[in-house]
Design a protein that fits this description.
With 232 residues, this protein is α/β, with parallel strands linked by helices. Helix content is 32%, strand content 17%. The chain has a six-stranded parallel beta sheet with strand order 3-2-1-7-8-9. Strands 5-4-6 form a three-stranded antiparallel beta sheet. It is globular and about 55 Å long. The model has no long low-confidence stretch (mean pLDDT 94). The chain binds 2'-O-acetyl adenosine-5-diphosphoribose. 2'-O-acetyl adenosine-5-diphosphoribose (OAD) binds next to helix 1.
């Protein structure tokens, strides 16, 4: 079971959330990543995510994403040693690298959610002043399919079941500030898994991992994947 955060996409040029200035792309998280912010200023929030979605065209997966896709392609599927990659990231770099056994627990920039009919759909362009919902034809009802603060992350039951059966839990490039993801290391330990963190700097959760390796994901992740595949 592998959990990734913003740090895995940093070397692709996607900014992490908690920079030294505490701002995310110049905005306070409370102004763009809460349901309240969306109610108060939908145009600001839609514009912010429209810009993040457009920015995906200017970035590429890095060696860490490619290594995890290689692991997915080569790791057994059906002999009880399965693999699950869970990302907190809303970019599409894992899927562009080729990962298949992948869940986005905080939603995806390239997905829209209709608040009228509850449909979710792939979305490439802007959501500000978007056309009517293709599923129900209501207008002005599409929002970014992103899990904002105060909302329930996606796929929780599947993720927790995978952790409860894991023999290895790896967290890559995540600061350990946001729950429930920050608590997965504890669930993994309770399940008896070896817990390994790969991060540029010590994180909030480092002391709770059995093993930490410090360095850039673009170097550490390919080395880990080589080890896992050699010792399979
Ligand atoms: P953060 O920005 O909080 O943390 C990124 C982590 O990656 C930090 O610990 C950095 O030290 C580390 N890092 C930076 N560059 C790295 C590199 N090249 N290699 C390895 N590690 C590196 O991002 P997350 O932990 O992902 O939620 O944030 C969790 C959630 O908070 C996000 O999913 C988002 C945010 O608010 C939502 O949008 C709901």
């Amino acid at each position: 079971m592998i959990l990734t955060g913003a740090g895995i996409s940093a070397e692709s040029g996607v900014p992490t959330f908690r920079g030294p200035d505490g701002l995310w792309e110049g905005q306070r998280v409370e102004d763009v990543a809460t349901p309240r912010a969306f109610r108060r200023d939908p145009r600001l929030v839609q514009t912010f995510y429209d810009q993040r979605r457009a920015a995906l065209a200017r970035v590429e997966p890095n060696p860490a994403h490619h290594a995890l896709a290689r692991l997915d392609a080569l790791w057994p599927r059906s002999d009880g040693r399965d693999l699950l990659l869970v990302t907190q990231n809303v970019d599409d770099l894992h899927e562009r690298a080729g990962s298949k056994r992948l869940l986005h627990m905080h939603g995806e920039l390239k997905s829209a959610w209709c608040l009228a009919c509850d449909s979710r759909m792939s979305w490439e362009g802007t959501l500000l002043d978007a056309p009517a919902c293709p599923a129900c034809n209501a207008s002005g009802t599409l929002r970014p399919d992103i899990v904002w603060f105060g909302e329930m992350p996606y796929h929780m039951a599947v993720i927790e079941r995978a952790i409860s059966r894991a023999d290895l839990f790896v967290a890559i490039g995540t600061s350990g500030n946001v729950y429930p993801a920050a608590g997965y290391v504890d669930l993994a330990r309770e399940a008896g898994a070896h817990t390994l963190e790969l991060n540029l700097d010590p994180s909030m959760t480092s002391p709770r991992f059995a093993e930490s390796r410090l360095g850039p994901a673009g170097t550490l992740v390919p080395a880990l994947v080589n080890d896992l595949l050699e010792n399979r």
